[in-house]
TrEMBL record:
<feature type="domain" description="Luciferase-like">
    <location>
        <begin position="22"/>
        <end position="260"/>
    </location>
</feature>
<dbReference type="Pfam" id="PF00296">
    <property type="entry name" value="Bac_luciferase"/>
</dbReference>
<keyword id="KW-0560">Oxidoreductase</keyword>
<dbReference type="InterPro" id="IPR036661">
    <property type="entry name" value="Luciferase-like_sf"/>
</dbReference>
<dbReference type="InterPro" id="IPR050564">
    <property type="entry name" value="F420-G6PD/mer"/>
</dbReference>
<dbReference type="InterPro" id="IPR019910">
    <property type="entry name" value="Lucif-like_OxRdtase_MSMEG_4879"/>
</dbReference>
<protein>
    <submittedName>
        <fullName>TIGR03564 family F420-dependent LLM class oxidoreductase</fullName>
    </submittedName>
</protein>
<dbReference type="InterPro" id="IPR011251">
    <property type="entry name" value="Luciferase-like_dom"/>
</dbReference>
Length: 285
């Protein structure tokens, strides 16, 4: 299991992204509403991990031609280290904040990938579908990056199995990985899981804070469905928190369940996150 780190300007600062990623197999960043562009941010991670990933870039606001163009540019600038993670995001952001109809997210993602992949390969795309009409090719030259999607439900897992290299999942436990994601994706797929982690003597306090800070997660249909599937009340139930030994043991369970890539997102102060970093790099592999 490869070990990655979630890096964000809000906790690390743009100038601190390189140091935050040091020692890990991969560094990942996300598209937050109103926040920094994740693909551009990855070009600020100098040297360091052999893989730089987005987890994820929303599909609805960004035409696949624009995404492919930027992805190939970042791939060239980073020496071929990009893994492109995309997904439909959520209705509260796409429809309510951006005013874009959030219609058929699985169908939209499938068609998005049907356009995206050949563009990344440098092919001329002629496509006329429900969501996109495209007749173009890109002149930017770089190796096409691997493409992952944020797939949790059965229909999105089917799209991932057919058209992507795997899934990026969050708010899941090892049991759901083994019983739902692995069989849903089939052999050879990458299963990338992001986990909130705290090394602490007060795990209940950490989970209470996550339950408060991430309360909205439990109301989002895609996340609510996967939490219900796993019998979990909310996102706090997916947090890995405890002593160093407990954290290492719990994270290894993800490896045993079939996770190929673990993205660690440390909780707490800079000192707390540094402790998570040291424990993960020293004990999970």
């Amino acid at each position: 299991m490869r070990i990655g780190i979630n890096v964000t300007p809000s906790t690390d600062g743009i100038e601190g992204l390189t140091e935050a990623a040091r020692g890990f197999d991969s560094a990942w960043t996300n598209q937050h509403p109103g926040g920094w562009d994740p693909l551009t941010l990855l070009t600020a991670v100098e040297g360091g991990p052999p893989e730089l990933g987005t987890a994820i870039v929303p599909t609805y606001p960004r035409h696949p031609v624009a995404t492919a163009t930027e992805a190939l540019t970042v791939q060239a600038l980073t020496g071929g280290r990009l893994t492109l993670g995309v997904g439909p995001s959520h209705s509260w952001y796409i429809a309510e904040q951006l005013g874009i109809p959030y219609a058929s997210p699985a169908g939209h993602t499938r068609e998005y990938l049907e356009v995206l992949h050949p563009l990344l390969r440098g092919e001329h795309v002629r496509h006329s579908g429900r969501f996109f009409t495209v007749d173009t090719r890109l002149t930017a030259k770089a190796d096409p990056p691997p493409v992952l999607i944020s797939a949790l439900g059965p229909r999105m897992l089917e799209v991932a199995r057919d058209l992507a290299d795997g899934t990026i999942a969050v708010w899941v436990r090892p049991e759901l990985v083994a019983e739902h994601l692995v069989p849903g994706l089939g052999a050879g797929a990458r299963i990338v899981v992001m986990v909130l982690v705290a090394v602490t003597g007060d795990p209940d306090g950490v989970r209470a804070a996550v339950a408060r800070d991430f309360a909205k997660v439990a109301e989002m249909p895609a996340y609510r469905a996967v939490l219900d599937r796993a019998g979990l009340a909310g996102p706090a139930d997916t947090v890995v928190a405890g002593t160093e030994a407990e954290v290492v043991r719990e994270l290894r369970r993800f490896r045993d369940a079939g996770v190929t890539d673990l993205i660690v997102s440390g909780l707490g102060s800079p000192v707390d996150r540094a402790r998570v970093r040291d424990v993960v790099l020293g004990g999970v592999r």
